[in-house]
Amino acid sequence: MYRTLNHKVISGALSYASPYIRSRSSSTLLSRRSSYFHHPSSSFPSSSKRSFSQSSSSSFSTSSSSSSSSSTIPPSPPPPPPPRVGRSFLRNAGRVSGFVLGAGIVGLGLAYIAQPEDERAFMSSKISRYYTFWRTLLPIVVDYKWTEYRTKDMPEDVQQQRFDALHDRYAPQILALILNLKGLYIKVGQVAAMRPDMLPKQYRDSLSILWDNVPSRSADEMRTIICRSLKIDRIEDMFLEFNEKPIGAASVGQVHEAKLLDGTEVVIKVQYPDAKMIFDLDLTTSRQFAALVRPEQLPMFDEIEKQLMMELDFEREGWALKQVYENIMPIYNEKVIIPRPIPGLATKNVLVMEKLQGGIKLVDGIMNQYKAIAEANGMTMEQLKERAMTEFKKAKSKQSRFMRPPAWALRLYIQYLRIRNATGNMIISLYNHSIGFVAPSTRFGYFSTVKPPLNHAFLMDTLLQVHGHQIFVDGVFNADPHPGNIFLMPDGRIGLLDYGQVKVLDMESRKQLARLVVALAEGTKDDIVREMVSCGMRTRHMDPFVIEKIAVAYYDHEGPDVSGDKNVHEFVRELQERDPILDYPKDIFLVARTAMILRGTGMMLAYSVSTAKAWLPFAKQILATN
Predict the structure, then answer these.
(1) How far apart (Å, rounded) are the C-alpha atoms in residues 26 and 157?
(2) What are phi and psi of 494, to 5 degrees?
(3) What is the DSSP string of 256-270?
C-alpha cells in the first residue's frame, strides 16, 4: 500500500507522512493517473519524500497492496474500476494500520513484562513513544492516500483545494507531534522546514518554529547537570553570572549565557539527561522499520546513526570545535567567526565556549529583510514570499539557474544604497526645511530607509567555500550546517555554531570524492557513473541513468535539468523503483547531506548554487597535491 516514503531523512513523523503532503503539481498528478487501479490486484502507486538529513538524512518506506479476487475485468479497454474498491482500500488500510500498531504494542508489552523492575521505566517510555507516533501518523497517511485516490480523476483545481485542506488540518498536528516527542524528530522537522521542494507551504510555516523556538527545560535542572558535570558544588563556584533563560534549545539540549570568574563571557551547552535514551528509542524504532521494508537502505542508516550518536558526546564536540577553529580561522577570519571551546570545560554532557557578541540568526535576518521589503511595497509577508518563490521556480535551465550577480557586485550595490540614502536624505532634509518650508509644494520625498538587502552571493559563496575547505583540505567538516546554526554578525562576518555532527574523512575518501566532484563539474555522464561506482555505489541493475542522476541530485544541484517537473525527492523515489540501491558510498554520505542542507539555505535566499562547481577548486587542489 505504501512504498518509498523518502530517501533523505532517517526517521520521524514527516519521513512517513511526507509523500502525501507534498505540493500537488499537474505533471505529478498526470504522471500517476495511468497507474491507478487498472486491475483488481494492482498495487497503489508509490510516493516519496525527504530524509532529514539532512540530516540531513536517510529514508524509509512501506509497501502493501489491495486486491479483490471476486471482480473480473471486461475484455474491452479501458477496463472500468472494480466495484467497491474504495471500501476495499479503507478496509485493508485499517487492517494494516491496526496490525502495525497492535503488533508493535503487543511486542513491546511482552518485552516490558520480561524486563527487570529497574528497567521497566525505559520500556514504558518506549511503548509510549511508539504508540504516540503511530497513533498520530497512521490516520494522516491513510487520509492523504484516500484523498489521492478519490481525487485522481477530478480537475486539478479541485485536487489542489482538497489537499490544501489536508495540509491546513494536519500541519499543526505534525508540529505538535514533533514538539511532543522531541529528540530525533526535531532534526527531521528542521531540515524539512528549509526545503520548499520538500513540503508545501503550510508545513514549512508550521515547522519553521523548530529552527529557534524549541521548548526548553527548567534552569534548576540545568544547574544540577552543570554542577555535577563540572564537579562543583554551586554554579557560583565557577561562574560570576548565569542567565537562567536559555538563548536556544535543540533536540539534545539547550544553551545558556554565563560569565566566568575572570569576566569572560561564555555560553554553556547542556545535554538533557535522557537525550541518549530518547535517541536510542527513536533510532531503534527507525532501524526496525527500515530493516522490515527497505533493508537495502540500512547501510546509509548505519552511517547516520553513528554520526547522530556522536552528537551526544560533548567532549568530542569540544575537540571538533577546536579543530575547525584552528583550520578555518587563519584563512577565513575576515569572512567568518567560530567560537573557541574553553580549555578544561568540556565533559560528556556540558560544553563551555566563547560567546559570539551581537549576532542574529540567519533565519531572523532573512525574515527581517522580507518584512521591510513587504512594508515598502505595500505587500503582506505571504504575498512577498509567494512572489519570491515564484521567481525562484521560473528558472528552466542549468545555465539560467546559476547566472547570479557575484558577491562583489552586490557588495558595491549595497554600499551605493547606503551612501545614497544617507547623503540623499540629508540634502532633501536641508531643502525641505529651507526652500521647502517657504514653498511647501516643492518639497521632496525621502529615499526609503529600508535596510540594504542581504548579500546573498556573499553568504552562499562563503558557506560553500568554508565547508569545501573543511571537507577536502582539512578532512574535518560540519555535517549539520542548517540555518539555525548560522549567524549574521554586526561586523559583516558569518558566525558558525554547533559542531556536534563533525565527520572525519581520511585522505583516500577525500580523493575519491574529489574525483567525483571533478566529474560532476567538468566530466561526462560516463565519468560521473564511473566515479560514483568507484566511491561504492551499487544498485540492483547498475543502471547508468539511475547512478548518474543520484550523483547529480545529491552532490551537485537540483532543478528541471535533473528531475524535470518533479521535485528531487519524488524523482529519487522513482529512480529507486527503477533500480533499487543496494549499497551507498558510506564514507561520503554525510557530504551529500551537507551539500543538500547548504543548497536548502540557498533556496531560502532564492539563490541556487552548484555545490560541485563551488567545490571544484578544492577537489583539484587535493588531487594535485596528493
Answers:
(1) 9
(2) -105, 125
(3) EEEEETTS-EEEEEE
**What is the maximal distance between C-alpha atoms in the chain?**
94
- CA dist., res. 593 & res. 606, Å (int): 20
- 473480473: which residue's cell? 72
Cell numbers at residue 60, please?
524509509
| Chain centroid to CA 287 | 20
Q: How many residues does the chain have?
A: 626
For residue 308, give the amino acid letter: L
Q: Is the pLDDT of residue 38 over 80?
A: no
DSSP, res 55? B
The reply to whether omega before 78 is within 30° of 0 (cis) is yes
**Alpha-carbon gap, residue 586 to 297, rounded angstroms:** 11
Distance separating alpha carbons of residues 376 and 370, to the nearest angstrom: 10
Question: Judging by DSSP bridges, how do beta strands 336-337 and 494-496 pair with one another?
Answer: parallel
**Which residue in the block uniquely carries the three cell numbers 534552569?**
219
Q: What rounded mean pLDDT belongs to the chain? A: 76
- The residue type of 123 is M
d(CA 448, CA 374): 13
Residue (of 6, 532, 516) closest to 297 by Cα position: 6
Per the CB < 8 A criterion, the answer to whether 259 and 240 are in contact is yes
From CA 611, how far away is CA 597, in angstroms rounded?
A: 11
pLDDT per residue as tens digits for the range 186-242: 877 877 776 666 678 888 888 887 866 677 889 999 999 999 999 999 999 999 999
H-type helices in 74-155, by residue range? Answer: 85-114, 120-150
Question: How many other C-beta atoms are found inside a 10 Å radius of the C-beta of residue 372?
Answer: 16
Given a contact cutoff of 8 angstroms between Cβ atoms, the answer to whether 332 and 456 are in contact is no
pLDDT tens-digit map of 41-76: 333 333 333 333 333 333 333 333 333 333 333 343
End-to-end CA distance of the chain: 50
Task: Work out the number of other CB atoms within 10 angstroms of the CB of residue 116.
Answer: 6
In Å, how far from its chain's centre is CA 395? Answer: 22
Tell me which residue of 546, 504, 520 sits closest to 619, measured CA to CA. Answer: 520
Cα 414 to chain centroid distance, Å, stands at: 30
Q: How far apart are CA 592 and CA 453, in angstroms?
A: 30
Q: Which amino acid is at 170?
A: Y
Distance CA 137, CA 100 (A): 12
What is the Cα–Cα distance from 120 to 484, expressed in whole angstroms?
36
Grid coordinates belonging to 572: 529519487
562 grid coordinates? 535533473
Q: Is 564 left (phi over 0), alpha (psi -120 to 50) or beta?
A: left
Beta bridge partners of 341: 353
Nearest to 356 by CA among 242, 253, 241, 497: 497
Nine cell digits for residue 108: 513491546
Say which residue the cell 571538533 belongs to: 320
Main-chain dihedrals φ then ψ at residue 592, nearest 5 degrees: -60, -40
Amino acid at 51: S
What is the sign of the dihedral through the CA atoms of 320, 321, 322 and 328?
A: positive
Contact at 8 Å (CB) between 381 and 391?
A: no
**Omega of the bond leading into 560 within 30 degrees of 0 (cis):** no
